[in-house]
Automatic annotation (TrEMBL):
Keywords: Amino-acid biosynthesis, Branched-chain amino acid biosynthesis, Isomerase, Magnesium, Metal-binding, Oxidoreductase. This is Acetohydroxy-acid isomeroreductase. The lineage of its organism: Bacteria, Bacillati, Actinomycetota, Actinomycetes, Propionibacteriales. Residues 221-363 form the KARI C-terminal knotted domain. Signal peptide: none annotated. Residues 24-224 form the KARI N-terminal Rossmann domain. It comes from Kribbella steppae. Mg(2+) 1 binds at D229, E233.
């Protein structure tokens, strides 16, 4: 679904390659419309206190302040997150904090933000206690994928909607807070309406998205969302980036660079000037910023990396689509119950991050043409795979480009890539561990050894004329109005 209608909000049309898509421009001036658009929802129950649960519960509570809609947080008995929720104003005394099943039973909109594997295991218990006609809310389509693979389904008679922010929970909250003083600050979101028995599901989804502070909301399907989201985590958002910087650091070291320079040319170049250039001016601007000699190296790197990266993205997509990747996440839960997940930042390069960060004021990193060519090729490979699989352009540019350069890469720049991998969702961490080494091996064994091959000018011309540039130009008009503030 790339179009939607609303009985409350005024939507707009965005021109994209091959047609148009419907969007809703957000803003705090729309907050007074939220109770009306929620259509009978007087209690929202947010189950879970991971990064998304923590952020979404606070944003919705703040956006609905002064209305008759209450936001409650539901946690499992003995949850270690209860104290943090209390510190942020959710308490048992006023009924805004409670047992997860009790909160689910009392809510008109139940937003399921517990971990993916836990939701796969526990969804039947949650469904069993829902009020008749209560709306089921998701921020990820993982559960749909699991239900399809296991022969299950959502309960009849319940609206099923999704609002999926295109950024981490920390970004969702931080940009919302920035939006208190800068209108338009926030994280874009997609909506999906999977079941609409009472005819109000779209308005409820739009209200949820506006309440989160989304600068603009676009439409997709729940199936398209989980495919693009899970593939993106394993590719350009996390897995490919981690594999790429590990491969490049080793490449530069073998080529004679000292450790700090190797870190700057790999990690720092991607998370800093490359990300900022794409965010401000688009993908071709990275190539245009280079000298003629550096542009030739960019073209050779792009040529060497595009095909191998596209192969891996297609493989990931197939394994997500047939349920293999989802089953691997669920299987991991049993292992992780007795053996904690190891941290990923053990290679020598990560010990130089602090030194590189300290140099930023005096010797800021530049766009490295080799790094840029490999990174942009991988990003475009994901874009092209999603386009060929039929995803709408709003989803493609948000999942593959905007989420990377406006949410994840700024956090990687402030911390480092390995830190972010170790502090994202369990589903994303597992996927990065599985696919990051595949990307690393592909760069080391296929792309980098091919750098002496002349650039494929047909492939470069295809990059320069790629329709994603037009789609990104339109979407960028509605990107967050400020850069995220990462302390």
């Amino acid at each position: 679904m790339t179009t939607f209608t609303s009985s409350v909000f005024r939507t707009e049309t965005m021109t994209v390659p091959g047609g148009t898509e419907t969007i809703l421009r957000g803003g705090r001036d729309l907050f007074p419309l939220l109770p009306q658009s929620l259509h009978g929802v007087r209690r929202i129950g947010v189950l879970g206190w991971g990064p998304q649960g923590r952020a979404q519960a606070q944003n919705l509570r703040d956006s609905l302040a002064g209305t008759d809609v209450t936001v409650s947080v539901g946690l499992r008995p003995g949850s270690a997150s209860a104290d943090d929720a209390r510190k942020l104003g959710f308490t048992e005394d006023d009924g805004t904090l409670g047992d997860w099943l009790a909160v689910a039973a009392a809510s008109d909109l139940v937003i399921l933000l517990i971990a993916d594997a836990a939701l796969a295991a526990e969804h039947e218990r949650i469904f069993a206690v829902l009020k008749p006609g209560a709306t089921i809310g998701l921020s990820h389509g993982f559960l749909l994928g699991h239900l399809k693979a296991s022969g299950g389904d959502f309960p009849a008679g319940h609206p099923v909607i999704a609002v999926c922010p295109k950024g981490m929970g920390d970004s969702v909250r931080r940009l919302y807070e920035q939006g208190a003083t800068v209108n338009g600050a926030g994280i874009n979101a997609s909506i999906a309406v999977h079941a609409d028995p009472d005819g109000h599901a779209t308005d409820r989804a739009l209200a949820w998205s506006v309440g989160l502070g989304s600068p603009y909301t676009f439409a997709t399907t729940l199936e398209n969302e989980y495919k693009s989201d899970i593939v993106g985590e394993r590719a350009i958002l996390l897995g490919a980036v981690h594999g790429l910087v590990e491969a490049l650091y080793r490449h530069f070291r073998l080529d004679g660079a000292d450790p700090v320079t190797a870190y700057e040319r790999s990690t720092e170049s991607i998370t800093g000037p490359i990300a900022r250039t794409i965010s401000a001016a688009g993908l071709p601007a990275v190539r245009a910023a280079l000298t003629d000699d550096d542009r030739d190296l960019f073209d050779r790197a792009y040529t060497a990396a595009y095909g191998p990266a596209r192969e891996i993205v297609a493989e990931i997509y197939d394994e997500v689509a047939d349920g293999t990747e989802l089953r691997s996440v669920i299987l991991a839960e049993d292992r992780l119950a007795s053996r904690p997940m190891s941290r990923i930042g053990g290679s020598p390069m990560w010990s130089y991050g602090a030194e590189v960060h300290a140099r930023r004021g005096t010797t800021p990193a530049a766009i490295d043409p080799l790094t840029a060519g490999l990174f942009v090729a991988t990003m475009v490979a994901q874009v092209d795979e999603f386009a060929d699989r039929g995803h709408p352009w709003s989803e493609i540019v948000n999942e593959s480009i905007i989420e990377a350069v406006d949410s994840l890469l700024p956090y990687m720049h402030a911390r480092d890539v390995a830190y972010m991998v170790d502090n994202c969702s369990r589903t994303a961490r597992l996927g990065t561990r599985r696919w990051g080494p595949r990307f690393q091996a592909s760069y080391e064994q296929i792309a980098l050894p091919s750098l002496d091959t002349p650039a494929d000018q047909t492939l470069i011309a295809s990059f320069l004329s790629n329709p994603t540039h037009d789609a990104l130009t339109e979407a960028a008009k509605l990107r967050p109005s400020v850069d995220i503030s990462v302390s």
